[in-house]
Specification:
72 residues, alpha+beta, 3-stranded mixed beta sheet, 38% strand, elongated
């Protein structure tokens, strides 16, 4: 059954070492999004969201969003 609406694929990753630079975090999220994009999903999945839940105290959240069409 194919989805009728546009959809966002959201991936939650916990216990991530967020002590890296912002550029390294974004680069890692981009690599994950590109890997997800290799899956042959229905075209209505148009965006990926990657949530990193940091293990540092206090815990933090880093969020990255990518449009599927931009990941070639």
């Amino acid at each position: 059954m194919a989805p009728k609406d546009t959809l966002i694929y959201t991936l939650y990753l916990s216990k991530i070492d967020c002590g890296k630079s912002e550029e390294e975090m974004k680069s890692g999220a981009l690599a994950i999004a590109k890997e997800i994009n290799t899956l042959d999903w229905h075209p209505n999945f148009y965006k990926y969201e990657i949530f990193f839940y940091c293990k540092q105290s206090p815990p933090g959240i880093a969020t990255y969003r990518f449009l599927r069409k931009d990941l070639k």
